[in-house]
Amino acid sequence: MxxxxxxxxxxxxxxxxxxxxxxxxxxxxxxIKKTRxxxxxxxxxxxxSCALSIESTLGKLNGIESVTVSPLQGQTVIRxxxxxxxxxxxxxxxxxxxxKVDEFMENEIAVCRLRIKGMACTxxxxxxxxxxxxxxxxxxxxxxLALEEAKIxxxxxxxxxxxxxxxxxxxxxGADLISSGDSxxxxxxxxxxxxxxxxxxIIQSSIESVEGVNHVEMDxxxxxxxxxxxxxxxxxxxxxxxxxxxxxxxxxxHATLYVPPRxxxxxxxxxxxxxxxxxxxxxxxxxxxxxxxxVLPMLPPYGDWLFNKIHNMLTVGMLLRWILCTxxxxxxxxxxxxxxxxALKRRSANMDVLVALGTNAAYFYSVYNIIKALxxxxxxxxxxxxxxxxxxxxxxxxxxxxxxxxxxxxxxxGKLTDLAPxxxxxxxxxxxxxxxxxxxxxxxxxxxxxxxxxxxxxxVPVDGVVIKGQSYVNESMITGEARPVTKRPGDKxxxxxxxxxxxxxxxATHVGSETALSQIVQLVEAAQLAKAPVQKLADRISKFFxxxxxxxxxxxxxxxxxxxxxxxxxNPLCVGTxxxxxxxGRGAPNCYVPPNETRGRAARGVPPGNFTYxxxxxxxxxxxxxxxQRYRDHEDDYSLTSALFYALRINSQDIQLNLxxxxxxxxxxxxxxxxxxxxxxxxxxxxxxxxxxxxIPKAMDGFELALQFGISVLVVACPCxxxxxxxxxxxxxxxxxxxxxxxxxGGNALENAHKVRTVVFDKTGTLTVGKxxxxxxxxxxxxxxxxxxxxxxSAEANSEHPIAKAVVNYAKKLRQKYGxxxxxxxxxxxxxxxxxxxxxxxxxxxxVLVGNKRFMKSQNVPVSMEIENYxxxxxxxxxxxxxxxxxxxxxxxxxxxxxxxxEAKRVVSFLRSMNITSVMVTGxxxxxxxxxxxxxGICKVFAETDPLGKADKIRELQLKGGAVAMxxxxxxxxPALVAADVGxxxxxxTDVAIExxxxxxxxxNLEDVVTAIDLSRKTLSRIRLNYVWALGYNxxxxxxxxxxxxxxxxxxxPPWLAGACMAASSVSVVCSSLLLQSYKKPLHVQDSKGxxxxxxxx
Length: 1098
Prior knowledge:
By secondary structure, this protein is of the alpha+beta class. Among the domains are: 19-103, 2-Layer Sandwich (Alpha-Beta Plaits); 110-180, Alpha-Beta Plaits (2-Layer Sandwich), CATH 3.30.70.100; 264-413, no CATH class; 742-768 and 900-1002, HAD superfamily/HAD-like (Rossmann fold, 3-Layer(aba) Sandwich); 773-897, Calcium-transporting ATPase, cytoplasmic domain N (3-Layer(aba) Sandwich), CATH 3.40.1110.10. 43% of the residues lie in helices and 19% in strands. The protein has 36 helices and 38 strands. The chain has an eight-stranded mixed β-sheet, sandwiched between helices. A hairpin with a 2-residue loop joins strand 30 (838-843) and strand 31 (846-851). Helix 9 (316-332) packs parallel to helix 12 (385-409) and helix 21 packs parallel to helix 36 (1055-1074). The two termini are 27 Å apart.
């Protein structure tokens, strides 16, 4: 066993974090009213009394809404209204109490969330982020493609949400405000009786006069109002009464609850319907067009009719295809033109640009052929109207399937939001506590401290405390706990859970956005919006794979003369050994090596300094003489595509192609150039006769064959599915985790969890139950056991310490054993608490001391060798000895232990099977720590460690390599939770620990540690598989589209089939992510004997 009890304490200066909550002012919708939260770092807070004095003094100041002091971390968090008090005044007040404020900051940062419309791929989301970050005042912008939302951090003094929305709309996308500022409670009301602006002013003034109202927002017509309020001071029913009381005489106002539809659901439904309708209409035209192009011409009766000439060489078939294609191209395909316009306006390119270019090339070339056929008697050509129409149809089908599948990725989140019931039974109680009335109201009208009746089979509407009744409540939908939980008076209940049997009367404690269900939904939404670091892999891949895949196969198309012998094209450009056009990789003297390729030239056989740069070509002129000069001695190494690609320079600020830019940054504009190079790579050899005429299909010429290849490359090349590979998997995984009782705070935590190689467990409340119990007693005098326990419990009855509660509970059970049902103990006089040691009291004339050995010695109470031996034996069994002394003599001891959680040993063993090392860190003594570690199977222990020492141990383990996860539950665990790569907080722990953690285990079951890591591994594996799906279509499709198989097999990829492949890639990725919904917890896999089947581990 590896142990280390010496801790080098390091006290890092805790950095101040300042956050701003922004709301809309009641007086003006354009004015932003700030409710700020500032955190001070205070250096000399030593105890709880210091914290209490700060809280009480600041709490009396006008404008202070809340004060929270953490003595352990030396931090004070104050929420205040800037209009009433300033941060400097607060600082001076703290210093006036004798405390030193080390530092504080006053950066005003507000946050708003927006719903984005019109995004098609990562190019869209990235262009929105770039546009926002260029705006003065925007500090951070994150746009989620799969979630179709954006989260923006901004300076409210420089910009507001309305201007942010305008910036997005100027970029060609739609935007709606979801929320702005803190997650405060809001109620939406529908108003009746509003006839004039005066009525609006009356109602607004009345609402603003209510204490606790933070903001009021009325629509332009005055028919609806949104009110933000403090649930501690007011509630929805009070606001409705205020509105109705504002009416006097002929002016009568009435307000009812208005539940606005969830914006995301409405947008998603509208998008699905839009694509469904577009695809339906495109099929009405495309299917007949396909028949007229591919099927009917091969049937004699219909083919003869289609080939009938109307005028000159214009046939009936050509005219019909033109008529059927035009509505698809310009009416049904209008969205691609609009998207292309906005993309080009912001100087970028996306999928819409590629589709528009590809389909327009096919359409207008076909129109050109029709004009030639109409005006010429000798024209022989073919139209490609079916190409553009079918490409648009297949892409619309793909988008329809994609939005349907994307909607299913957030199913878990939708199910969570639907858990809360619509109505509840509100009770009114008289002074004696009897029910005086009962009304059924909307759940949204429940206010804090309301008493709610919950009947059997109904859902709990809000979080609260049971004040009467007993029942079993099914909490599986929130915590994942399979078995119903017993609820008695004093127990907490969670909104959205199911009451199985028995009546409960519950007092509401958390309502609106403060309920556990609302907090879970908000956390999961934030996690789904955050980008995982693995998303960067998609960005890197999209930069490099398109040119490599396109240019290599086309570059190897050497061509063949009419006689079939091999003949290399005479005009390639020497571009060194790292050219993308193919070749054998041999070095070449005096050849062009681009600037970003000079590194490592000697290793590749290219003499350093022995190279020259080609002259800069202006406009579209291709200087082939220079190519010939460089090709004479090294013609085996270089291909036609390389020559055409690198000799080509377009003189434009937006599109400039050279190797340096090509290797470092790729946008979709370069895909257009790749398609052009593909066309050129087939057209020039065809015109020069470098491949047999028999390769050209009937009714086509070399130009048309090359055009088909170019359009296919253009359509299939867009890496749209790459942008969906990560966010869709993260959305499904975080939603699935939430349904299993695991809250993952973002893609970063989800990704880091799969790297974990060491899990550090806190002992108390994490590996153990956290509720000490007395397991044995030892008497060292002739005092009766019942009297001994009664006196000890009387002394401990006034203490809130967990061990004190264990002593009291043990005494109560002992009374019941001896037939006594009295629950009250003798009143303790002169009660004193000695923190960390014990208590002292006078009970029945006896001076009673209850505490540890150190406390007894400090009170001059002798501790005999017999007592020392008993204590040593108890510590070896992971038990804590509580000594009890009467009038200066130890009369007995109680052995207290915190039982190990039943699943702890199984979890440690399962982690070992996953190649993860388990470590325990605790502030308890070494004997207890080692005993607990041996019981659960942990081989590495750090004991007698304070909170900052725990964080240091985490850093030590990180230095040894591998990611480290910390699992804890208390305030003393928060520094370690922050220091760890992944912090996991037990859900029953403190709010500070939960806030500091990356992952929250709602039901406090250690099995969920394994589940969180396993879910992370499964998700990362799924993301990698998504990349395979996303790239597979491009990597395989692009060479085929460019014609790599055509010279050998005659197989080519028509443009319409390329469009189908492009659509299928996105659908495949989303469907692949949806498979995560079938995820099962690994520790639920049991063998026939009921033990864990470790063969199913990751």
